[in-house]
UniProtKB/TrEMBL annotation:
Organism (species): Aegilops tauschii subsp. strangulata
Molecular-function GO term, any one: sphingomyelin synthase activity
Pfam family, one: PAP2_C
Stated name of the protein: Sphingomyelin synthase-like domain-containing protein
InterPro entries: Sphingomyelin_synth-like (IPR045221), Sphingomyelin_synth-like_dom (IPR025749)
GO cellular component: endoplasmic reticulum membrane; Golgi membrane; plasma membrane
GO biological process, one term: ceramide biosynthetic process
Species lineage: Eukaryota, Viridiplantae, Streptophyta, Embryophyta, Tracheophyta
Stretches that traverse the bilayer: 63-82, 214-239, 251-275, 329-351
Keyword set, alphabetical order: Lipid metabolism, Membrane, Sphingolipid metabolism, Transferase, Transmembrane, Transmembrane helix
């Protein structure tokens, strides 16, 4: 695309003309990155039986199913199906989710990767004829010319002169005007910034790492810690199936899914010390056992069964978590927080929908 533009030097300075067509052409013609994971899946399609290929292509499980599995796990704590601090495993899940989403946003904002589906932007959005002002100044002039790239590395300053272009549409979004340079609306898309944000749905450029896979891995890690066994093994197989389907259908590159898997496992392990109630209970029991060890030996020598039973009961009681609040208080607080959060979100959307 860039080679088709009139590039010339004026007094030793790079000048790029006819920039207005670049926005549309860049979105439509930028090739996806070479992905060896996609190549591997295509090669397997040629060699595996069609029944297996159909099974790999099948939409067995999706994002909302993983969230339903998490909700089932969270509510199972109320019926003593899992040991732990009640809502602790759910709190840990949401905390890790928030941290992971924050890290993901920092990651994909730092570098713009081309979409694995090149037609996405043209099919979903009204693309401006010219690229973003920053892209015109800092990226376009140095994107394809090796001499320009080498010079900008040496001088470490932008030196290209870009021709002026017609100002694009700038609606009045009041306090939300800062979103104009991000969303870049057109006149036919309406005055509502919330409508554009809602329609974005994650955008079309590749987002490193996969949010869907991150949720799937967190669900699998939570089930593995709570139950283990064949149920968790089955969930992990579903996670791998979802990963290959994300790659196969080109919603993400292979690297996005792989990074999401080990980031999810790492974050879950790192935050384990915050809600490690099971390990903490065991440590309390061992500490209490060391404390009463001598008394236990003396009671055993004296064949004092009642003393031994009392000491062992003390050890067991030391490992139990102290209940600071009743079940009713905890449920009331949870209901209040859920109601407050939903009302806050609804009010925010309704009061700021038009800027």
């Amino acid at each position: 695309v860039l080679l088709s533009l009139p590039i010339r030097y004026r007094d030793g300075t790079l000048v790029l003309g006819n920039i207005k067509t670049l926005g549309t052409l860049f979105k439509r013609s930028t090739a996806p990155l070479p992905d060896t994971g996609q190549w591997l899946l295509l090669a397997l399609n040629e060699r595996l039986p069609q029944t297996v290929v159909y099974l790999l292509r099948a939409h067995i499980i999706s994002l909302h199913h993983y969230l339903m599995l998490f909700i089932m796990l969270g509510f199972s704590a109320f019926f003593d199906c899992i040991k732990g601090p009640g809502l602790g495993i759910g709190t840990r899940y949401m905390f890790v989710m928030a941290v992971g989403r924050f890290l993901r946003t920092i990651t994909f904002v730092s570098t713009i990767l081309p979409s694995a589906r090149p037609w996405c932007a043209a099919a979903r959005y009204k693309i401006p004829d010219h690229p973003h002002a920053w892209a015109q100044k800092y990226y376009v002039p140095y994107a394809s010319d090796p001499r320009a790239i080498r010079r900008v590395i040496l001088v470490d300053m932008p030196y290209a002169i870009v021709q002026n272009y017609t100002d694009y549409y700038r609606p009045d979004w009041a306090y939300m005007n800062f979103l104009i340079d991000i969303l870049r609306p057109s006149a036919g898309e309406g005055p509502s910034w919330y409508h554009l944000v809602n329609k974005a749905g994650g955008g079309c450029n590749d987002l490193m790492y996969s949010g869907h896979m991150f949720v799937a891995v967190l669900t699998a890690m939570a089930w593995t810690e709570a139950y283990g066994g064949w149920i968790s093994v089955g969930i992990w197989f579903l996670v791998l199936h979802s990963a290959q389907r994300e790659i196969r259908e080109r919603y993400h590159y292979s690297a996005d899914c792989i990074v999401a898997i080990y980031i999810g496992i790492l974050l879950w392990r790192v935050t384990g010390f915050i809600w490690s109630t099971r390990d903490l209970d065991q440590a309390r029991r061992l500490a209490k056992l060391d404390e009463v060890q001598n008394r236990l030996f003396h009671a055993a020598k004296d064949s004092d069964i009642d003393e031994i039973r009392g000491l062992l009961n003390e050890v067991e009681m030391a490992g139990q978590s102290k209940r600071t609040f009743s079940q009713g208080v905890i449920l009331s607080f949870a209901a209040f927080m859920i109601t407050f959060t939903l009302l806050f979100v609804l009010l925010a959307f309704s009061l700021t929908s038009n800027g």
